[in-house]
């Protein structure tokens, strides 16, 4: 219910751009001054104080959700005298009431929201952004207005006493207690969500192989979404014991997989799974989706734990994909077979004799020692190169080499072996191009461009997007498969969800508006084609697909995450990027739709759980305003992406994005400076112009 008549309020007479933005709200706003104070005293109504500024993202969100809404306005006007303050015009008022908010809540920012007594203007409740309705533990403004308004009418002495106590505590720097006034806004999301996350962590912890990493018994699958869930779990638990244990599980698994034979140490890339506990003997088939998801896991762990081995593995995965799995037109092929010449693994294994013939005696002996190539072999009489038992200290001591010198020698040997291996008969390549798996690799490459600062990765991702738009997107409908000039099969949920994921990451990496536009367009189409209007969640097939016996709806996160899991995360991220309340509501519906299923076996849905983790944590949005060619932009991006910020969204405003996201028009551009706006936990900080200043805000 919005104010369709747009009847102006008193703010229309003000000069402040921020106050003028609210001049047509149905809220009966007053500017800060005696007229409002006199009305509050005369009518014995508390003051509803809202402080912000014209370029504050969450100020605009709260206006759209609440202050433009008739239902909210009626409650404000009934119970309170509403006052709107521009913090840039009245820093004195802002400073005073920010102190109260920080004392009461432990944090502050804008929009700043307070409830004050009518005469002395002492706060009795404070916060920053409030959504219209209560959700996920954050009280909604509707509930808050009703409960505080009715409490004032029924028990003024209690509120005044609490306000006096708060005032005394703040002015004497004591710790205030306001639990008696906190409205009873019980939302069961936080308890059940945290329980599910904790159960998933505990289950993974019990099945974790402490020596070799991974989960469960052989055969062992990489399951990268377990690792990215654990990285977020570690992040969310800060420096506690759970954080250490979660981080250890990720580090051990990535390290041991990277050492094992499941990784191709000659030509790079990961095989599908390991047949043993040690990650030594793989099923030699290589899948595009495994390599995409593992690259993301290595990159995120590099951000979180800063191990250079993680950077190396991500680069090696991309080297393999761009060399062997990329079509000339830009899409990515699906897989490579395990067999060559009818024999599994023949392309990948070696004997000491072959190594020595290629490398010579000394270099061959070093390579065989380092990579476990022995006369007896480790796979049907031959050897899969691996680093599982490599004693680097002994190798270096024997040759009086540093680790760096050893690795340089071994890299030269690898290049020679790779050149010889190219002459072997290769495994069959499955050269079909799948939209869904391409979406995963687009996401991985875009994240590689973010974290490693490599423009070539973003360029490869963009080429894949252009390929899909040209060959797999017809009449506002994604198709699932392309091969040999033929595109076929109506796209499934995974095609939409995974490609949207890739587009979001690519926009975050490049700032090119077209990628965000396409993501939003696809999300609208996905909602239209796949949404279950009766029970919520997304079907696997579109409403225009062939009618089968049943219409499946998948959520289990197996070899790849489910489309429903990635959709939940996409919706939250797009909502935070655009401020679109409809997207946010759809995200909440998506999460609630699968609550019972998630509770049955939480660790089976570790990708879906990452959407819940995002919903639970405080939001953080960064707007980088200025030219995409500004030299300071690169420094700011490096500052943002060098650390693990899993719940941060990034917008680039160079003067055109406000056409897509109207509230960005309030973020001024400076032709000389790059400006970074940081909004965190629904409140905004002062803008900064240097990467060092932004870094200080992000710590």
TrEMBL record:
* A biological process from GO: carbohydrate metabolic process
Q: Which Gene3D superfamilies match?
A: 1.50.10.10, Glutaredoxin
A Pfam family found in this protein is Thioredox_DsbH
- Annotated Spermatogenesis-associated protein 20-like TRX domain residues: 9-170
InterPro entries membership: 6-hairpin_glycosidase_sf (IPR008928), 6hp_glycosidase-like_sf (IPR012341), Ssp411 (IPR024705), Ssp411-like_TRX (IPR004879), Thioredoxin-like_sf (IPR036249)
Protein name per Swiss-Prot or TrEMBL: Spermatogenesis-associated protein 20-like TRX domain-containing protein
Recorded source organism is Desulfitobacterium hafniense (strain Y51)
């Amino acid at each position: 219910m919005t104010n369709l008549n747009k009847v102006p309020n008193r703010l229309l007479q003000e000069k402040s751009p921020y106050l003028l933005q609210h001049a047509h709200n149905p809220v009966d706003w007053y500017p800060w001054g005696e007229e409002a104070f006199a009305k509050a005293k005369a009518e014995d109504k508390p003051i509803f104080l809202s402080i912000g500024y014209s370029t504050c993202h969450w100020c605009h969100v709260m206006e759209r959700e609440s202050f433009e809404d008739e239902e909210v306005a009626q409650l404000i006007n009934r119970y309170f005298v509403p006052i709107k303050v521009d913090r840039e015009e009245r820093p004195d008022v802002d400073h005073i009431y920010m102190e109260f908010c920080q004392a009461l809540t432990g944090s502050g920012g804008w929009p700043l929201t307070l409830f004050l007594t009518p005469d002395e203007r002492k706060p009795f409740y404070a916060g920053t952004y409030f959504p219209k309705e209560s959700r996920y533990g954050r009280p909604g403004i509707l509930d808050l207005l009703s409960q505080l308004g009715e409490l004032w009418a029924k028990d003024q002495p209690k509120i005044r006493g609490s306000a006096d106590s708060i005032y005394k505590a703040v002015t004497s720097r004591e710790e205030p207690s306001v639990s008696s006034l906190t409205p009873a806004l019980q939302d069961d999301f936080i308890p059940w969500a945290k329980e599910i996350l904790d159960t998933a962590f505990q289950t993974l912890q019990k099945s974790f192989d402490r020596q070799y990493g991974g989960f469960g018994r052989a055969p062992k699958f990489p399951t990268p979404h377990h690792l990215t869930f654990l990285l977020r779990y570690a992040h969310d638990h800060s420096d506690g014991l759970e954080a250490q244990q979660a981080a250890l599980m990720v580090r051990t698994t990535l390290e041991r997989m990277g050492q094992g034979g499941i990784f191709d140490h000659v030509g790079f890339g990961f095989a599908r799974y390991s047949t043993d506990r040690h990650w030594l003997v793989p099923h030699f088939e290589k899948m595009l989706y495994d390599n995409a998801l593992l690259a993301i896991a290595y990159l995120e762990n590099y951000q979180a734990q800063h191990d250079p081995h993680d950077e190396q593995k991500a680069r090696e995965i991309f080297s393999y994909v761009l060399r062997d799995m990329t079509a000339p037109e830009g899409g990515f092929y699906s897989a490579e077979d395990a067999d060559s010449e009818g024999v599994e693994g023949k392309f990948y294994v070696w004997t000491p004799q072959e190594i020595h013939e290629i490398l010579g005696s000394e270099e061959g002996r070093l390579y065989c020692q380092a990579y476990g190539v022995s006369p007896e072999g480790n796979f049907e009489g031959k050897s899969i190169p691996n680093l599982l038992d490599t004693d680097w200290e002994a190798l270096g001591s024997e040759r009086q080499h540093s680790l760096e010198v050893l690795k340089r020698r071994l890299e030269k040997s690898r290049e020679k072996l790779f050149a010889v291996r190219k002459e072997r008969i290769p495994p069959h390549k499955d050269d079909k191009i799948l939209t869904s798996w391409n979406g995963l690799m687009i996401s991985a490459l875009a994240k590689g461009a973010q974290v490693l600062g490599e423009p070539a990765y973003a360029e490869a991702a963009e080429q894949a997007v252009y390929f899909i738009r040209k060959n797999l997107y017809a009449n506002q409908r994604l198709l699932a498969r392309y091969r040999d000039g033929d595109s076929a099969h109506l796209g499934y949920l995974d095609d939409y969800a995974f490609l949207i994921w890739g587009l979001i990451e690519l926009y975050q990496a490049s700032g090119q508006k077209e990628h965000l536009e396409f993501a939003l367009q696809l999300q609208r189409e996905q909602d239209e084609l796949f949404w279950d209007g009766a029970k919520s969640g997304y079907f696997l097939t579109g409403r225009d697909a062939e009618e089968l016996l049943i219409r499946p709806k998948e959520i289990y996160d197996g070899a790849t995450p489910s489309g429903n899991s990635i959709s939940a995360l996409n919706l939250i991220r797009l909502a935070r990027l655009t401020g679109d309340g409809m997207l946010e509501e759809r995200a909440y519906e998506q999460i609630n739709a699968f609550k019972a299923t998630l509770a049955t076996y939480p660790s089976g849905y570790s990708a879906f759980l990452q959407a819940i983790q995002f919903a639970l944590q405080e939001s953080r949005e960064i707007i980088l305003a200025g030219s995409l060619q500004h030299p300071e932009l690169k420094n700011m991006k490096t500052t943002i992406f060098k650390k693990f910020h899993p719940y941060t969204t990034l917008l680039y405003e160079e003067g055109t994005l406000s056409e897509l996201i109207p509230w960005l028009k309030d973020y001024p551009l400076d032709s000389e400076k790059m400006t970074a706006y940081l909004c965190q936990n629904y409140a905004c900080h002062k803008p900064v112009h240097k990467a060092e200043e932004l870094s200080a805000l992000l710590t």
